[in-house]
Write a structure and sequence with these properties.
Blueprint (H helix, E strand, L loop, with lengths): L1 E2 L10 H14 L5 H15 L18 H7 L2 H6 L7 H22 L1 H30 L10 E2 L2 H11 L6 E4 L2 E4 L3 H12 L5 H20 L5 H24 L5 E3 L2 E3 L1 H12 L4 E2 L6 E2 L16 H26 L2
Antiparallel strand pairs: 1-2, 3-4, 5-6, 7-8
Helix pairs in contact: 1-5, 2-5, 5-6, 5-7, 6-7, 6-9, 7-9, 8-9, 9-10
Length: 334
């Protein structure tokens, strides 16, 4: 994400982007359609060919500006600004990064889940940028640099994708020649870019990293196949937190006495106790340690094999061995 430093239009680097994209896409075993569509959309919006100009708003209508978005409730700026870029180098750098991250994530997640993940990360990163810029204004009267800043670009989403991609990695990676643990690569890139690349939006990149961390936290807390569901349930849970806090503090809910015992709070405690009894389990396909509340592996999607199923498999195995031993005795024991 870059701030408004003036737009210089040049087409010199676009053929290199097209060549690199075609080469990497051709070499990929599975051709990820969502990644290709995102790169094509960003490139077409930047080029703005004549037949699409009536449909594509100009960049002056799209700049991400916290003050204008909150003042006018401008959802167009909120959702479309990541797909606009200022210069060739801005577009090429982001699209090459999107190609590398998108191929890996889409191949591991599947196209539908990857598309949902990108949408979630985009909404989270833009929302966090608004919250941070407004907070700096309200609590620190820090208005000039962030609250009225104009910026565009896909890099906030890319930082979030980098956090998701490297969240389970124990390897090291090189960030501009500096060797760092992969899971901290986004933080190292954030500060190195801010020091050596002029005109970038620090708040936009920071919000991308925080969006990736929030997304991973929601995925750990909620099971299911649709990441957007995690976001919505997490947001609803956040809104209900003050009510739960007051409920626990003052005990508004009273247990109702019936002929068979109490109903209400005691029942909730029983459910909480049964949830605590759930133990973690290790995926047989990728050896990832999952929460006992999940029925499918969070990393690779493999279904959990229950203990009863494992016992049934072992029982069938031993029955077949006994049958084989009996047949051998009948054949060779005479």
């Amino acid at each position: 994400m870059e701030s408004n430093t003036g737009r210089g239009i040049s087409r010199g680097m676009l053929p290199l982007l097209a060549l690199h994209t075609f080469t990497e896409y051709y070499r990929s075993d599975s051709k990820p359609p969502v990644t290709a569509a995102l790169i094509a959309a960003n490139t077409l919006i930047y080029l703005r060919p004549n037949f699409l100009r009536p449909l594509i708003p100009s960049i002056d209508q799209i700049w991400f500006n916290p003050h204008l978005i909150l003042k006018n409730k401008d959802l167009q700026r909120f959702f479309l600004s990541p797909f606009y870029h200022i210069t060739d180098s801005h577009l090429v750098y982001n699209m090459v990064s999107l190609l590398w991250k998108g191929i890996q994530l889409e191949n591991s997640m599947g196209s539908l889940e990857f598309a949902s993940t990108v949408a979630s990360l985009l909404a989270l990163s833009q929302s966090i940028t608004l919250i941070l810029s407004k907070s700096l204004l309200v609590f620190f009267d820090y208005e000039r640099s962030y609250y009225n800043e104009y910026s565009v670009g896909f890099s906030g989403v890319l930082f979030a994708m980098k956090v998701v991609l490297n969240s389970q990695s124990d390897n090291y990676t090189s960030v501009y020649g500096v060797l760092v643990p992969s899971r901290y690569a986004a933080w190292a890139e954030l500060f190195l870019i801010q020091m050596f690349v002029p005109g970038v939006s620090f708040l936009g990149h920071l919000s991308g990293i925080l969006a990736g961390l929030v997304y991973l936290r929601l995925r750990r807390n909620y099971s299911g196949s649709n990441p957007l569901g995690f976001v919505f349930r997490g947001f609803t849970s956040l809104l209900k937190w003050p009510v739960r806090f007051l409920d626990n503090l003052f005990g508004f809910r009273r247990g109702r006495i019936t002929g068979r015992g109490t109903v209400g709070r005691a029942r909730r405690n029983v459910n909480a106790g049964s949830a605590r009894q759930a133990v973690d389990w290790r995926c047989q396909a990728c050896t990832y340690d999952n929460s006992g509340l999940l029925s499918v592996c969070e990393m690779c999607g493999t279904s959990r094999v229950s203990s009863s199923t494992q016992q049934g498999l072992r029982r069938d195995y031993y029955d077949s061995m006994d049958e084989l031993r009996r047949r051998r005795i009948e054949r060779f024991g005479r």
